[in-house]
Write a structure and sequence with these properties.
Layout lengths: L12 H6 L1 H4 L3 H9 L18 E2 L4 E2 L17 E3 L4 E4 L3 E4 L2 E3 L4 E4 L5 E5 L3 E3 L2 E4 L8 E5 L21 E5 L2 E5 L6 E3 L10 E3 L11 E4 L11 E3 L4 E3 L7 E9 L2 E4 L10 E2 L5 E2 L2 E4 L4 E4 L8 E5 L4 E3 L2 E3 L4 E2 L8 E2 L6 E7 L6 E3 L2 E3 L6 E6 L3 E3 L2 E6 L1 E3 L11 E3 L2 E6 L8 E4 L7 E3 L2 E3 L12 E3 L8 E3 L2 E3 L3 E5 L6 E10 L3 E5 L3 E12 L2 E4 L2 E2 L6 E3 L2 E3 L6 E5 L11 E4 L2 E11 L12 E5 L2 E11 L8 E5 L5 E5 L3 E5 L13 E7 L5 E8 L3 E2 L22 E9 L5 E8 L3 E6 L2 E6 L9 E3 L3 E3 L5 E9 L6 E6 L7 E2 L5 E3 L3 E5 L5 E5 L6
Parallel strand pairs: 1-3, 2-4, 3-6, 4-7, 5-8, 6-9, 7-10, 8-11, 9-12, 10-13, 11-24, 12-25, 13-26, 24-27, 25-30, 26-31, 27-32, 30-33, 31-34, 32-35, 34-37, 35-38, 36-39, 37-40, 38-41, 39-42, 40-43, 41-44, 42-45, 43-46, 44-46, 45-47, 46-48, 47-49, 48-50, 48-51, 48-52, 49-53, 51-54, 52-55, ...
Antiparallel strand pairs: 14-23, 15-20, 16-19, 16-23, 17-18, 19-20, 21-22, 28-29, 58-59, 59-60, 61-62, 61-64, 63-71, 64-70, 64-73, 65-68, 65-69, 65-71, 66-67, 66-70, 71-72, 74-75
Length: 823
């Protein structure tokens, strides 16, 4: 006889205990094992995966006894959908001890019915799980019940009976496609406290009965987050400002809520008219994967084929339990909301789109050594640790995080390491148009809504992202020489908008708007490019005492400076405050250049704290008028101009890379903002993937093409530095031909001089090859106006317009030559 749909987890408690052999080791035994000092990671301890108890014998409906050879699966069965069989699940509320879909088998939820499948054990997919409702009114639900989080072991590569969840293994495939709808949008304007109706920008696909969530927009308090051990939850009044309501009525973009809002969610408007409004997410989908509030499950994918998860709702995932003697529950390693685990190239082409994963006990969206995954238009709400997570020093490649919303990464009671999006190592990764709201709530120098950790190098395309209402919005702590570019980043009402830590690295922040949050710059620079802010607006919102802090670090400024070029500072008593307080046995002076910057509603462009080092200084070169140097110990002095007046709008050169020292086999192409590669060797701290993960040997070559725009009408000398051989052409004239391998990245070759005209663009081509030893390539130039050899900056380099770089469906960059007629 089939399972009775009315039997829930509570009524089955005694039954579950009685069939403990089926449901895995009891919690007490697991606790004893943990108290013995065993690590939290899976060490092969735990119940072996249970074998199926019943197999399909043909294709057909779940409810047809002939599909199963004479009897239907019962509550204590683990049915197997066998190879070559397609079983259509047509039950309203079936319950089993688990389900296996074998290789070549398919379990499909009936498209024309609302179906709920409840499992007390694992669902293991080695074939296909298909959930594609025919209409928005049909709902498909896979629910894990009676899950004992205390029994979870975590870690490892294979399913464990103790770690109940959805496992996609081998050639297993998830084909999940709910009704399309706008996953998240923005309020059209301010939303007042107490209202029951709001206008949103786009409510496509939203329905009466859907659950929506609206975020706060103000700055979080700075008292930190307490923990209630008795209740086992954080005490965080700011988290309460993320409000959930059901849709009682909807008329196009006008949404009526079932209850009044307890808080205001006000628009933030600058004095120049720039406006941000609260994000509003729809959490309801008609394809659902879920645990329960008292027993969270997980989704683990280690498959050799791409997955498709579109418009899926997932909740009550990400288990926690007590580990390592800590009295508070910690995350279970490897048991996350949606975890792609060591899929390597098998995940390439995977799409996760329009999903809402919420009320998750730990990490949510995790591509772990799994390449070519696109995650677009998703919501992560009320999670722990990190919403979009990257394992430390583990590389994933060609990942796209586009237009996702992270809202409320909750405190865990153990540390303050919350992160909205952790940007880890790999090649070809992109984060664009994402929003993180209260993804970070701890130590403002400890992490951020977006975070680049130390020794976890990842050069991402990072553009048009927004952070607001975080303790720190964007956190940087890279001590590596690779160049990073942050494009059009916006931040409002973050306590710290940006904390740029570390000691020496190369970052260019270009464009964007910072409102109501301090930017704190601790880093110096790893090369002559400097840590640069270009065309960024810093707005103190008439409530900050300064827009930018310059902090000390053990890496002192030398000949290079941190640069603010063509930036605007607004609405604060001080634009930039030098606070180079003493650090024992360190020279912590800092040098900062302000070039062609504007000031509006600012009392003073620069200031020093009393304890700042005497030899810290600012240099100011306005668009017109006198150039000044402001030294803490000696005051203000008039100086000669120290920077060019002319800057271009370049974004870099087109780089094409080859296996073989003579351009033998093209392997990838990309836009390189600068040729400033100090080290390509395999060093997990400096360059975890070497030149690129597709180039594994010592023999490679590279070619950069595009245009270069001089900043002075003068005679220029170029330098190429690094190991390997070099060639350089400017204006179709070969200036360097030194095609011989070098052994040291300090080696260089210089060109004869060439006369160039300010503002005119010239064709440039740079080539290099390498056959072994140290690896690096850096392009410098020098003229009288510059005064010394410096890296050719990104602003003066333009990509080759005859080469089209685009991303294919697996998010890998492909290039092709475009003829002149097509341009």
């Amino acid at each position: 006889m089939g399972a009775q749909p009315t039997r829930d987890c509570i009524s089955h408690f005694q039954f579950v205990v009685a069939i403990g052999a089926l449901l895995g080791a009891p919690a007490a035994a697991d606790e004893n094992r943990r108290q013995s000092g065993a690590p939290a990671a899976h060490q092969g301890i735990g119940a072996a995966l249970r074998a199926p108890t019943l197999s399909s014998v043909r294709s057909g409906n779940w409810s047809d006894v002939d599909t199963w050879g004479g009897r239907l699966p019962e509550v204590d069965d683990i049915p197997l959908v066998a190879k070559g069989h397609e079983v259509r699940y047509d039950g309203e509320s079936t319950m089993t001890a688990g389900v296996n879909v074998g290789p070549g088998g398919t379990l499909e939820f009936a498209p024309d019915r609302s179906c709920t499948f409840q499992c007390m054990g694992n669902v293991v997919i080695e074939g296909t799980l298909r959930m594609r409702p025919a209409t928005p009114d049909h709902v498909h639900t896979l629910r894990f019940i009676c899950v004992n989080e205390k029994s979870f072991v975590g870690g490892g590569m294979d399913p464990l009976d103790s770690d109940v969840g959805l496992w996609v293994m081998g050639a297993g495939n998830l084909d999940l496609f709910g009704a399309a709808k706008t996953a998240w949008t923005n309020a059209a304007d301010s939303v007042e406290q107490g209202v029951t109706q709001l206008q949103v920008v786009d409510a496509s696909g939203w329905q009466v009965g859907d659950t929506v969530m609206i975020v706060p927009t103000e700055t979080p308090n700075d008292e930190g987050v307490a923990w209630d051990d008795q209740e086992g939850r954080p005490i965080d009044p700011f988290a309460d400002k993320f409000e959930r309501r059901k849709i009682a009525a909807i008329d196009e973009s006008a949404v009526t809520l079932d209850e009044p809002l307890a808080h205001g969610h006000m628009a933030v408007v600058t004095d120049g008219g720039k406006k941000w409004t609260a994000e509003v997410a729809n959490l309801t989908r008609n394809v659902r994967i879920e645990g329960t509030a008292s027993g969270r499950a997980h989704v683990f994918v280690r498959s050799s084929v791409p997955q498709s998860l579109r418009y899926v709702e997932a909740r009550h995932l990400g288990p926690r339990n007590q580990q390592a003697g800590n009295g508070r529950p910690q995350l279970v390693l490897g048991r996350y909301g949606l975890h792609f685990h060591h899929c390597y190239e098998g995940s390439r082409g995977t799409i996760v789109e329009g999903c809402a994963i919420y009320d998750v006990g730990n990490r949510v969206y995790v591509p772990h050594i799994s390449h070519g995954i696109t995650m677009r238009d998703n919501v992560a709400f009320n999670s722990g640790e990190a919403a979009f997570w990257w394992d430390f020093q583990e590389s994933s490649h060609d990942t796209l995080w586009e237009h996702n919303l992270v809202a409320l990464v909750s405190a865990n009671g153990i540390d303050s390491s919350s992160v909205g999006m952790l940007l880890g190592p790999g090649d070809g990764n992109v984060a664009c148009r994402n929003v993180v709201v209260y993804g970070h709530h701890g130590d403002p120098h400890g992490h951020g809504g977006y975070a680049w950790d130390a020794n976890n190098e990842g050069v991402w395309e990072f553009a048009a992202n927004l952070s607001h209402s975080n303790r720190t919005g964007l956190f940087v702590w890279q001590n590596t020489g690779l160049n990073h570019t942050v494009v059009n980043h916006e931040s409002y009402n973050d306590f710290l908008a940006i904390f740029h830590g570390a000691y020496g690295n190369s970052y260019t922040f270009t464009g964007g708007y910072i409102y109501g949050g301090i930017v704190r710059v601790k880093a110096t620079s790893g090369n002559t490019s400097g840590v640069r802010f270009e065309k960024v607006t810093f707005d103190g919102a008439d409530r900050l005492t300064r827009c930018v802090d310059i902090f000390p670090s053990p890496a002192t400024s030398g000949v290079d400076s941190n640069v603010f070029r063509e930036c605007e500072f607004r609405n604060a008593p001080v634009a930039l405050l030098m606070d180079t307080f003493p650090i024992a046995s360190e020279n912590v002076r800092k040098h900062v250049d302000l070039i062609a910057c504007n000031f509006a509603g600012v009392g003073s462009a620069t200031a020093f704290t009393d304890q700042s080092t005497p030899d810290s200084w600012f240099r100011i070169q306005p668009r017109s008028g006198r150039c000044l140097q402001v030294v803490h110990s000696t005051g203000t002095h008039e100086i000669e101009p120290f920077a060019p007046d002319h800057y271009g709008a370049g974004v870099g050169l087109t780089g094409r890379y080859f296996v073989g020292s003579d351009f033998d086999e093209p392997v990838f192409a990309r836009l390189d903002p600068m040729i400033a590669f100090q080290q390509w060797s395999y060093d997990r701290d400096a360059s975890p993937n070497g030149l690129h993960h597709l180039i594994t040997g010592d023999a490679f070559s590279a070619r950069w093409t595009g245009l270069i725009e001089p900043q002075f009408s003068q005679s220029y000398t170029f330098r190429l530095q690094g190991s390997g051989g070099f060639r350089l052409w400017v204006d179709d004239r070969q200036l360097i031909d030194s095609w011989e391998d070098r052994a040291d990245n300090a080696d260089f070759v210089e060109s004869p001089s060439i006369e160039l005209t300010e503002g005119k663009k010239y064709a440039i081509r740079v080539e290099t090859f390498n056959t072994g030893g140290a690896r690096g390539c850096q392009l410098y130039w020098m003229c009288d106006g510059l005064g010394r050899m410096v890296h050719v900056p990104q602003s003066q380099l333009f990509p080759d317009q005859t080469i089209l770089l685009r991303r294919d469906e697996t998010n890998r960059v492909v290039d092709s030559t475009v003829n002149a007629a097509a341009r």
